[in-house]
Design goal:
It is a single chain. The protein has 230 residues and is mostly helical. The protein folds into 2 domains: 62 residues, lambda repressor-like DNA-binding domains (434 Repressor (Amino-terminal Domain), Orthogonal Bundle); 112 residues. It contains 11 helices and 3 strands. The chain has a 3-stranded antiparallel β-sheet with strand order 1-2-3.
């Protein structure tokens, strides 16, 4: 294998702070293959070079050493097109779940699988969503918000039809993280029997998780406390 390609593959991976394991996972290849590419022990097929170039958003010539590394600037109307691998049918995108399925045969793929350059973005979005779905502490809400911001910033580097859709998801995620912050404050007051303060916070996020149930309990307990004082 051309030593220039091997060196460029290693340089650009390190520039993006990726491990060989992370790159292998994003490309769907064994980690050993990435190691051998960068060591010059295994040639990279042209189709794989195209996938790697798409992942880093550079040209194939950049990887082969034929030009200086630059970020591609795709025209605003550059349409992302990819037909089903099985039947060639049109793909329908589900940006919320970051997947797409064939309108004809129903086969489904992750967007990251079809567009490797979004693999890191997808990983960040999925991590943020897991935090929002499973954690109930203020620090976790802050972490999720930061992750969504990072993903949105990463998406802004790409100029295609997928990028703005994912940015919308990141913006919505930040709003949900803000809801989680309010929820956590309300739950803290609720757990400490400060029902008036809990009601004030939880009323801002009605419908979020078990907020409505806590509001109902707060109202009953708050009324009971008022009666007891009389």
């Amino acid at each position: 294998m051309d030593i220039t390609i091997a060196e460029n593959l290693k340089k650009i991976r390190e520039k993006h702070s990726l491990t060989q394991e992370a790159l292998a996972e994003a490309l769907g290849v064994p980690e050993l293959a990435v190691y051998k590419w960068e060591a010059g022990r295994l040639p990279v097929e042209y189709k794989m070079l195209v996938r790697i170039a798409d992942f880093y958003d550079v040209t194939v010539d950049t990887l082969t050493g034929s030009e200086t590394a630059v970020i591609r600037d795709n025209p605003a109307n550059d349409k992302v097109t990819f037909n089903c691998r099985v039947c060639g049918g049109d793909l329908v995108y589900d940006y919320v779940n970051v997947t797409c399925r064939c309108a004809n045969c129903g086969n489904k793929w992750s967007i990251a699988e079809l567009y490797p350059k979004y693999a890191r973005v997808m990983e960040t979005i999925n991590k943020a969503n897991r935090i929002l779905n499973n954690k109930t502490v203020l620090a976790s809400a802050d972490e999720a918000k930061l992750l969504f911001r990072q993903a949105a910033a990463e998406c802004a580097r790409f100029n295609d039809v997928i990028s703005p859709e994912l940015v919308k998801i990141c913006n919505d995620g930040q709003k949900r993280a803000e809801q989680l912050e309010i929820y956590c404050r309300g739950k803290h007051f609720f757990d400490n029997k400060a029902y008036k303060s809990a009601l004030k916070e939880l009323d801002k996020v009605r419908g979020f998780r078990d907020t409505d149930a806590m509001i109902d309990q707060c109202q009953k307990k708050f009324l009971k406390l008022k009666k007891d004082k009389k």
